[in-house]
Structures are given as C-alpha cells and as structure tokens.
Amino acid sequence: MPSSLHAQSLDWLGGHQGELIGWRRQLHSHPEVGYAEHRTTDLIVSVLSGFGLDPIRLSFGTGVICDIGPGPDYVALRADIDALPLPDYKTVSYASQNAGVCHACGHDVHTAILLAVAGCLARADTLGGSVRLIFQPAEERLPGGAEAVVKEGGLKGVGEIFALHCDPKLDVGQIGLRIGPITASCNQLDIKLTGPGGHTARPQLTVDLVYALGKLITELPGLLSRRIDPRAAVSLVWGAVTAGSAANAIPTTGTLRGTVRMLDDRLWNSLESVITDLVRQIVAPTGVQVEINYDAGVPAVANDGSLVGIQTRAALAAFGPQAVSETPQSMGGEDFAWYLQTIPGALARLGVRGPGAPVYDLHQSNFDIDEDALAIGVRFTTALLDEFWADAVDPT
C-alpha cells in the first residue's frame, strides 16, 4: 500500500531542504512587482520542468499554471509570486538586489513552498486525485491578479482551492485557521486636488490647496466613522500625500492615496457614494477642484467551513493539536477572495516567527522569516491533500 503524500514529503525534504531554502532566497534576492515577475516566472518554469511537469505560462507573460494528474476534477493550490515596491532594509546575504523592491509580504515563501509540493507530487507513488498549481502574479495590485487568472480560465475544472499566507505574529509550527471571513474587503481611494496656485504671502488671493489636503487627511476618516455603523469596522488610512516643492509657493496640484477597509462585506460596493459625498463637502469651502477615483479592490476572503475542517485535520495529523491556532479576521485585503466568488476555498496562516525573534508586520521593509517555516508549509500542504482526498472518498 503506498504511503501517504505527507510521509513521502518527509522523505523529499530529507534530500531537498537545501534546494527549498535556495529557491526562497533566489526569489527574495530578485523580487519583482506585479505583472513584471519575469525572472520569477522563469525560475518557476525551470524548476517545474526539472520535475518532469508541464508548466504553462499565463497569457500576460507572468505567472504559471501546472496540472498534475489526469483531471478533469482538480483541487487547486495557489501561491502569489509578486513583491512590493518597498526598499529592503535587512542586512542578510539574500537581501533584495532590486532597488526599491522587496518581498515584504512572504510571497517568496509561498512560491518556494508550492514548488516543493510540486516536487513531492511529481515523485509520489500514487495520487488520490488531480492537482492544479497556480503561481499567481500581481496579488499586491488592485483588483489583483487572481481576477485575471479567473478570466484566463484558471479555475476551469477546479472544484476547490487552498492557499497559505505568512503570519509573522504566529510562531513557526503554528497554523492559523478560521471559518468564515479571514480578511477584510479592501478598496483604494485616490483624490486629486487642483487650484490656481500662488504665493504663500497672499493665500487670500488664491486657493490654499495644501490646507484643503490637510482637511481631507484629518476630517474624512473622522466623518466616515460617524456616517457608518461602527460594527462594520470601516478603516480609512492614508498611505501617500504629495503636493508642491517650494516652501513659499502654494502648489497647483496635490494628491492623496489611501485604502478603505471593512470587515462587513455588505458595504463593499455601497461605500463609494458616501465617501464621494463627504470629500466634496469637506473641500467645498476651500475652492479647490477635486477628482475622486474609488477603486473597488477586493472583497473579503470567506473560508468554507468544510474545507477549514480539512485544514484542521491536516494540521492535527502532521503536527498535533499544539499546531492549530484560531486566527482572528484581519483588516488586510487578499485577492484570493476572487477565486472564492466562483468556487469554495480556504486560506490558512503559516507561522513564520522564530524563537525570540521580534514581531515584524507584513509590508515592513525589514520583514523576514525563520526558514524552518518552509518545511512546515510543505508538510501541511501535503497533509492537506491527503485529508482532502480521504474526505472525497469517505465524506463522513
């Protein structure tokens, strides 16, 4: 009788853990932003082809789909492959070599883990079903590369989908699980103000555009909290503001950029009109002209309860009860949600914090992981497939 895929993954890791770490470090050293992940895609294709698999590049040039097994019914495993436009502040040998770009969200980890799972699947004695590997570009963009993968037909023949995401607040060996919403809805707000400009000595003769920006920065989040039920947990946070270059000149243009996040997904499509009205009301007394671009980014990821049950059994089987951690709903957005608009799926959190290590947040330029988490991710994913196939045979 063939051994479980998880047992075979232990054998694979025994001979290939150095390669697993090497892939992660290659990816970390050469990060690429969304839809520019050409070197990353080349590495993925090379590794998968080396396993004797048949990877297919997506039509837009980056990202890969690779089917293992005859189909037609696939379970999908997704890894996102893009990085963030942030500098890398770490002093490590595998720090980013691409100025202003780094893997500050762990997508290099997700990709390396899925490559290793592919290696385990490629050499497995037998498989309990068919698997589609989705190496997805542009997760960090809005509305996200997942939507493009779906339009490409990436879910054709797929019944369920799973994914992992690094969690720097969880210790290595912990798997964070949650039934229902595990992320928030996330939209992007861009505001451009224009005016005639002028001398700072005579603001009464022109339009004080910087003052208008300041009003928006401080007043819009506050007013929004008074227009929306607080149980929806709406959060507007600015990420970028630009205006002017001289201390004694009132500029003619200025911009604000931020994100609007909410735990209540019912507001996702209805909040735009509220924000637009408030913006216009705030700046009306200042005389500036305003352009508003509200980009409905991604809905919340809502994990399917039965699939979280399979994740739970996988974590218990691979690591024991101490590994299972109930994770709270995050205010972060995740375009994995687009897949779940079509098929059921579940996202799990992978603990990456080493013993005694400081807690860094995602999207920080000094974010890093304990690389022992890589093998944990591989073992959890192979155990997940074992449990998924066992459940398909005997759902009771």
Please give a structural write-up.
The protein has 396 residues and is α/β, with parallel strands linked by helices. The protein folds into two domains: 5-182 and 300-393, Aminopeptidase (3-Layer(aba) Sandwich), CATH 3.40.630.10; 185-298, Alpha-Beta Plaits, CATH 3.30.70. Helix content is 34%, strand content 24%. The chain contains nine helices and 16 strands. The chain has helices at 5-29, 38-50, 107-122, 145-151, 209-227, 271-283, 305-319, 337-340, 372-393; strands at 56-57, 64-68, 74-80, 130-136, 158-171, 175-177, 180-181, 185-194, 198-199, 235-243, 249-250, 253-262, 289-298, 302-303, 324-326, 345-353. It has an eight-stranded mixed β-sheet, sandwiched between helices. Strand 1 (56-57) and strand 2 (64-68) form a beta hairpin. Helix 1 (5-29) packs antiparallel against helix 3, helix 3 crosses helix 9 and helix 5 (209-227) crosses helix 6 (271-283). The chain starts with a helix and ends with a helix.
